[in-house]
Every structure is written in C-alpha cells, then in structure tokens.
Write a structure and sequence with these properties.
Pfam families: PASTA, Pkinase. By secondary structure, the chain is of the alpha+beta class. Helix content is about 30%, strand content about 20%. It folds into six domains: about 90 residues, 2-Layer Sandwich (Phosphorylase Kinase, domain 1), CATH 3.30.200; about 280 residues, Orthogonal Bundle (Transferase(Phosphotransferase), domain 1), CATH 1.10.510; about 60 residues, 2-Layer Sandwich (Trypsin Inhibitor V, Chain A), CATH 3.30.10; about 70 residues, 2-Layer Sandwich (Trypsin Inhibitor V, Chain A), CATH 3.30.10.20; about 55 residues, 2-Layer Sandwich (Trypsin Inhibitor V, Chain A), CATH 3.30.10; about 60 residues, Trypsin Inhibitor V, Chain A, CATH 3.30.10. The longest helix has 23 residues. The chain starts with a helix and ends in a 5-residue tail after the last strand.
Length: about 650
Amino acid sequence: MVSANSTDPMIGRLLDGRYQIRSRIARGGMATVYLATDLRLERKVAIKIMHGHLADDSKFKERFVQEARSSARLAHPNVVNVFDQGQDSDMAYLVMEYLPGITLRDLLLEHRILTTEQTLDIMEAVLAGLAAAHKAGIVHRDLKPENVLLADDGRIKIGDFGLARAASTNTATGAALLGTIAYLSPELVTRGVADTRSDIYAVGIMMYEMLVGEQPFTGEQPMQIAYQHANDSVPSPSSANHRVPAELDDLVLWATAREPDDRPRDARALLDQLYQTHSSLMTALPPTASTAVQRTMVLPSAPAAESLGSTAETHIFGSELQQVAPPAPAQVSENTTTLSTQATKRKSRGWWLLALIVLLVGGAAGAGWYFGAGPGSQVTIPESIQSSTPEEARAILESLGLEVSDELGATSDPVVAVDLVANSTPEVGSAVPNGSTVTLLISTGPQPIAVPAFVGMTEQEARDAIAAAPFTLVEPVIKQFDPDIAAGLVIDALGADETSIVGLETYGELQNVALIISSGPLPDIACRTTDEASQILAGVGLNTAPGKEVFSDCEEGTVVGIDREVDGEGNGRTFREGDTATLIISRGPDLIQVPDVVGDRISDAINELESLEFVVTVQTDLPQGLWGTFAAEVLDQEPEAGEMLKRGSEVTIYGLRQD
C-alpha cells in the first residue's frame, strides 16, 4: 500500500528557503496541514497550505492574509500561535505552532460522551481562548471539535483562527460542508452574518455533543441540518442524557438560543457563568458523585460481556465516562461517530465482540491517561481572577480544584486597580496539576517612574522620554499657541486626570501622558477684514466665529482681535489647534461731538467736557479757587464746538489772562 506521504509532492519541499516539509498531518476542505521544520529557528512547526482553487481567489487570499495578521496578534495560552504567513510561488500558507496530540473530535469519536467535569474542564479552556479573540475583535466563525486541540503536554487550544473568516467568503455543498453546517448559527444560515454570538452558538452545540454523544440536529443533506438550525430550538441535553445536570441544560440553552440577542454577548460572559456553574456543581455534588476521586475500575472479563448492552459506566482514573444508548438510530454528519451500546444477544458473541472489548479497553486507557495523568489532569489558572477581589479569585480557583495560599503576594500593575488581584504564582494562563497551591499577587498600582523634565524638549525628545520611562503617549499630541515658548517645544505634560505632571517626582508606569506642544504665538490679525483674518487663522488650525463689536482705531467692519475670555487667575485664554476663535469686530473710532462751552464758568465747562471723557486743559491766570465765580468765564475753546473727536481727546479752554 502506498502512503499519502510517499505520493504527496509537498513532502521534502522547502518553502521560502526556510520551512522544510516533513510529513502530512491532515487534509481538509480548504487546506492541507503539514509537519515542517523551521530551519532558521530549528523548531517543529505546523504549516497550513491553502488548496490551489482557493489560492486563485484573490478575495479569499486577501482575507486569508488579513485574518492571519489578526491571529498573530492573539497571544493566549488557549489559542494556537500563528508565527508567519507567506506566499511561495502559487501557494499561500500559514506557519503555526505545532501541537502533537489529539483533537476534541478524536476524543468524542473514541468515547462519545464526556462527563460533566470533563466537559467543563475542556470548555473553560476553549472559552478562555475565545474570550481573548473576542476582546481583540476577532470572530472565529468555524468553531467545531476538529478545531479544539488537546496537546500531549496538557494544553488545550483553539486552532484555525487564521482561516475561519476567509473561509466564510465561499460556500460549499455536500459532505465537505457537513461538519461546519452542524455548528452554524441561525443568523449565519439565514443571513450570512456573524458576530461573537455566532461563536457562542457553536460552543453551545459542542457542549451538547460532549454531554449527549451526538449533535442536536442531523440529516443526510446539509440543507436538512441548516433548516433545523434556522427553525428549531436546540433541545436540552438532559432530554437525551438524564445524567446531565439542570445547570448545564441552562448553559447550553442560553448559548444556543435562536435569537442572537438572547445569547451571551461574547465568550467572556459565557465563561464567567461557566465558572459559577462549575463552582455550584462542585459544591452541590456529594463525595460519591462522579466528580469525586475513585479507584480505577477493571473491566469485566469475557463471560460478562453481555452486560455491555446495558447503560454501563466506564471509569477512567476516577472520572466517569458516560455511555448512553441512543433513543433510535440516526443519520449523523461525518464529524460524529456514534459508539453503539445497544444490547447484544449472547448467541452473537464472537470475534467481533472480542474486538469491541479490546476497543473499549484501549479507549478507556487513552481517556484515562488524558484526564488522569495526561493533559486532562492539568488546570489552567484563568484570566478571570485578574481585577477580582482576593475573595472572588479564591472562590474561582477552589472551584477548579486548586488550593489558594493564605499568604498574599504583591506586584505592581499598570492596569489592575490597587488591592485587586493582578496575577498569581504560578502566573495566570499557566497549566498546573490538580490540587496545586496558587499564591495570589495583589496589585500595588503602577510602578512609580521618575518624571522627565518635559518642558522645553522637542516633540521627538519628549516622545523618546515617554517610551523610555515607560509611559503611554496619548495620541495625537496637543498643539497650543504660546507667546513665550518657541514652536515645536513642549509647554506641558498632562496625566490621566488631565492635570500637569510637570514638577512631580514620579508618575505611574504605562500611565497616560498627553503632551502639549507650542505652536508659537497667535498671528496678528488686527485691522484685517474678517475674511483675511479667518484665512490667516485657518492656516494655523483655528476656526473662527464673529463676536462682539467695539469702537477702535481700526476701520469699521474690520477685526480688532481675538476675544480672550479671562479666567479666574487673570490669565488670557489659551488656544489650541482645532479651537474656535471669536473675532472682535470694529465699529470704527468712538467719536464724540465737542460741546460749546464758551461763556460758561471754567468749572462748569470742565465738568461737562470730562463727562464726555475728554481730557481738559485750562489756560487762564485766575487762581483755581476762583474758577467757579462769575469772573471765570470761558472766553474761547479749541477745538471749536461741533467737531467730532475720539473719546479721550484733549480739549483746551481759555479764561481771563492778564496779558
């Protein structure tokens, strides 16, 4: 027999002078996955190469690259890492983390039904990874057991983030689509649109399958399954498996609600509820329940084989693997294999029964290793303990079977508020054996960092200082007009509360800093027309609006200047680029008609002229004490009566003189 590897032309090929293809791992409807060696970093990687007919589709390839870049930004212990993406000749490929192990589909094919505890353990890891994707704005859109990887070293990861969204631009029919159709949400079936709640629906279908042993909707054709997803509600798992707790019924029905608005908004919301459900189930179950540690059970010898036809229990290192006979034979998709437990007549026992026993023993040993000494015995410290109180974190960790130290550690953290849990030892996201002790690390707030002398720095110098601290620069920088600081230099630096940090000795690590950069003095627009003034100010980033009118030396209708609202400290208002400057418009000079004061007493003339805000000069030899007498008559004035003068102009009056 000729193996696939011996006939695959990709085996032995070198991609981009770096990746040596070693063997084929799997082939799907859209891509083939190979084991390869990264010759540059000397490590094993998995390479997914798109099928040729898809690589020829430019739109598909464009979204393939876009999603690869998005996936590469996802750094989470429950998401398969994407290392690289490239093109070699006509082949588009992704380079991913290589995880030797099995998929959730393999586990379901081998054992059909998982226990409540096993289902919760796996789904907590799946939802933790999916929550990170949803937080980053990424929707998977192809969640199914084939894309959940159970690694030999204990890690549980979601794969195919790099391809899922790109694949949605194409449609397929027949068996190639059957596995995906089984997990498609009603809105994807009817409208072709997806968001985070579509992923939640797929998670709910997977949970149903893990608890029941088959998918809720089956059919011979993809359209039959799609029709059921669009028109029927998913039944509760307990209707097919009476061992399923009501709490898990509620989770599955919530996740698979036909209306997206009735589902959890994203993976984080469902994960939080899953933690609570896990905790309540652990509290409610007595020590003799299926989650309690039990001794390893030995399968009966051949004479007892007829008991296999009953609803028997297979024990795997103390965890119960439930096997329930299906209510009736049903057509299932290619992605679901049903392990028959139908009663067998004694007379039909033979070689095939012996083979079935061997299969069950082997399956029990494999699953026993996975959940006992293998990856299933590991617990991932969840991200949900971060930003929680120590009491809340303790409850979450203890619900997962971990011990929590009474001693609290401390660590600085730029994000988590003071006195809340920032991390743990071992750290959040790491996998630890069941029963391990975890120490909570409480946030002391951001680490204090010395504040640089920002004022007078150039913008680039200030940017470099912020990066070196490190602080977080708020973009864009603020441009502010200043008559005293040259354009391009720093005027001030504001902290998170928009108060100046200039003069502070320290400021929190990674906290926000907003730079205020000088744009120099405001341009001079005095006595310009309003159009000219508006154009000048627009050139430096200011909007304009007409304001009050005042008398001035500028011609009527021209601009006197910018109206500066004076604050309580008596400083003129500052302007920043993008602000609106209110223009003060000139009414022209403020002219007053000079009254006729000839013949008046000097003192009366002075009072009248000063009331009109003229400055009065008196030319007379009479002592000032006599200016109010009949002898102090104004004999002449300059300027003459009737002339128009500006307020504050000088008027001279003449009285009795001896010469």
